[in-house]
User: Which sequence fits this backbone?
């Protein structure tokens, strides 16, 4: 595993559980607003898997869960073993994914390697090209796999102006339904970004998203405005 970051405690990254967060190195997308530039490009010092496992072993009486995020964790060839080893220690495991690798996701689900899946749905399918070389059918397939997995999950979209338009949210709600939990996150610029032109972009105001907010209220969608 190529690990580029370890957060020893998070109250936010696993619903209702204290967790550690592990960041894997590398990503197959290039979202223009991404602020994990060095992690995505592999330009970070690596943390040994041995160190991470030693830390988790030592904290297993105090932490309940581990969130594996990235970058894109499904690019790691030894991800399944890694997830299995963490679960064997007694941790709940959450995996964050961009949904571009449904074949890996299927294997993870079939082997029961995770307890929670969180998938970013970046924008409407016809705008996915803004994130790089993505086949929207892979995104659809991943969503369907997750929905039918029986595993706890959430879909989430960050409301980035120029990438996600209010009409995209309305379309997404229709196209990804039914879902258990759909989280809309406010966008906050955190330079440096992959595309410097996106730095300093202002997120939407609640007024900009009035129609979306009304729809969310009727569908009980969680929205995270900071
Ligand atoms: S925001 Fe995009 S480029 Fe950055 S890590 Fe996530 S999927 Fe990869």
Assistant:
């Amino acid at each position: 595993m190529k690990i580029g970051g370890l957060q020893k405690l998070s109250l936010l990254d696993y619903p209702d559980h204290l967790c550690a967060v592990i960041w894997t190195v590398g990503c197959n997308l290039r979202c223009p607003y991404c602020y994990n530039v060095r992690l995505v490009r592999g330009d970070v010092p690596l943390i040994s898997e041995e160190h991470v496992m030693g830390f988790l072993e030592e904290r297993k009486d105090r932490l309940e869960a581990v969130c594996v995020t990235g970058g894109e964790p499904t690019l790691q060839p030894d991800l399944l073993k890694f997830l299995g080893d963490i679960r064997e220690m007694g941790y709940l495991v959450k995996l964050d994914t961009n949904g571009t690798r449904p074949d890996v996701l299927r294997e993870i689900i079939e082997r029961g390697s995770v307890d929670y899946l969180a998938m970013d749905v970046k924008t409407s399918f016809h705008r996915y090209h803004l994130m790089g070389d993505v086949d929207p059918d892979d995104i659809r397939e991943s969503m369907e796999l997750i929905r039918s997995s029986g595993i706890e999950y959430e879909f989430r979209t960050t409301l980035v102006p120029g990438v996600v338009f209010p009409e995209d949210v309305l379309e997404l709600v229709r196209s990804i339904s039914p879902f258990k939990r759909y989280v809309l996150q406010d966008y906050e610029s955190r330079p440096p970004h992959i595309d410097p032109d996106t730095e300093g972009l202002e997120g939407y105001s609640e007024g900009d998203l009035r129609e979306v907010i009304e729809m969310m209220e009727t569908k009980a969608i969680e929205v995270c405005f900071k």
Q: What stands out?
A: The first strand starts at residue 3 and ends at 10. Residues 27, 29-31, 34, 36, 40, 70-72, 98 surround iron/sulfur cluster (CB under 6 Å). The beta strands are 3-10, 19-24, 65-69, 92-97, 116-120, 152-159, 182-186, 222-224.
